[in-house]
Amino acid sequence: MEPEYHNSIFKRLCLALNALPQAHRDTIQEWLTECPAEMFRECIVAFQQFITIYVNEYRCIDDHVASATKVLGLLHRSNMGRQRVCYKEFYNDAINELVDFTEDFARWKDTQRCSFSFCAHPFVLDPGTKSKLLQLDANNQMRSQIRGALFRSIFGGSECPYLILKVRRDNLIRDTLLQISALQHQHEDLKKPLKVIFKGEEGIDEGGVQKEFFQLIVRQMFDLNYGMYVYDDEARTFWFSSTALENAREFNLIGKVLGLAIYNSVILDVHFPMVVYKKLMGGPLCLQDLKDCQPALYRGLCTLLSFEGDVEDVYSRTFVVDYEEYGAVKSHPLKPGGESINVTADNRQEYVDLYVKYLLEDSIQQQFAAFAEGFHQVCGGPALRMFIPEELELLICGSPSLDFHALQEITSTEDGYTRDHPVISNFWSVVHAMSLQEKKKLLFFCTGSDRSPIKGLGSMTFVISRNGPDSDRLPTAHTCFNHLLLPEYRDVDKLRRCLMTAINNAEGFGLMERATLHASLRPLVVATLGGCDASWEPATLHVSVRPLVEASAALQLADVPESGPFVGACDPSWMRPFMDTTLHGSVRPFMGACDPSWMRPFMGACDPSCEEPPGSPHGHGADGAWCKLAT
Asked: In Å, how far are 145, 377, 384 from 188, measured between CA atoms?
């Protein structure tokens, strides 16, 4: 409809339609169901155009915009009854780009302030906007929990304002399960901001540590050896195991993990079929939902429904489902007396409906109920109900498209690098030549997740900083801030070699336990330098630095004479921290800002990590002398 008709016709039409009794609007909705697809699409375009012009030109949300949005909702409900256009055609770019959704969300939560809010009509909002609204709601709840915890700390004893999970990498599921299970009657604690601590590692969680935590725990939980899920090779998706009845706590934990990931804005590499998200949102199920779950069975049931011969004679089926449990074949009747009811052309639709209901609902009722309960305990609520199943999958898993050209366009540079610097140009030439799997590893290395945000890589923040001159140091990253630290490598081959080494060994935070390392050496470890050659003899070193030596024998650095700084009988000259000539090449860069106490771990001096008692062979001497070197 042309804009000149908006005042004379369109406004009156919208007001008239919204003034009708609900029964009459339901009748119009049924009529629209019979509308041909092309005509139906033209109606949508006309209302979208009206809303877009008003929002763009007048920058206001008046009664006419509200009225047109409500009529568009009538068209949306009709399309849900019989889909003729994609749900994405109801998204309105002007609304998503120009509306202040902080204010709109406040109006939605407090209907007395204003009777209209776009949040009440989520079909016009794209997944990016809905994600922002969900995060806005989560942040409000987090602030509320923090204030409550601080208030209770003042009047009722100490209480941490964060949900802190302390886990070991080799006992990840057990540690997480025990700590979350301890909150069984304190569900509100799950609404606190999450902080993850990997025991024995340096990482401080500003977002990056929890990203890796979620990636690792999801990877382990979906391991087929646990028996909680079955995997369909054709669909490449996981489905709940119908025989895993004793794993209710684990399924509840997975639901909470997914909820915590959404609540804390972390994207997961989860491979569920769409029907899982449909069930989470309470949608009705049908045969089509089996397609992404068990495609071979879906095709078989479709063939049964379309078969034109003698169904009873050819198929010889009864109303019974056969399944395997621990190597034994068992049967389940789809209806009372199903063993004696043959499938015929007359009752095959009933058979298929019951079969689908059994597979998608009845056989996994306990498992999915525990999973859904855990999920909704964390992030359930009105904000989540804005999403449709397709958008919920996008929210949890991110966009499947990895457009690194878009990422290059939005990347900023710091500390001496520019967009056209040779190192930056070499970096992107290496990245664009990577395989998809290698690009995922790079993304994981830099951001803590190998998935793209809802709106793609072009919507995120990414920074590359210069991390010193050319050296053998590997690239490092602050995953909390999507920040890559890249030395100024002399050529593209060295950049490629160092970058590939880094991304292929990008799990963990720090190289050893904090408690066993002197504070002055921790920057060395965190910076992933610490390379050494054969002249570093582990047997002559203090026990606190041996892991550093043993873990970093890859780099070939300057030779050290026998009387060098790390052999057993050191002369006093090695302790002069500012005389580089007496120090091993890999340590010299760290000497400039150190006082003599930094050498103590190499000399055997007891720092706070030393547990040897006074007088022991490896502890303090009676006269307070240096410790002996441990052998």
From this structure: 8, 9, 17
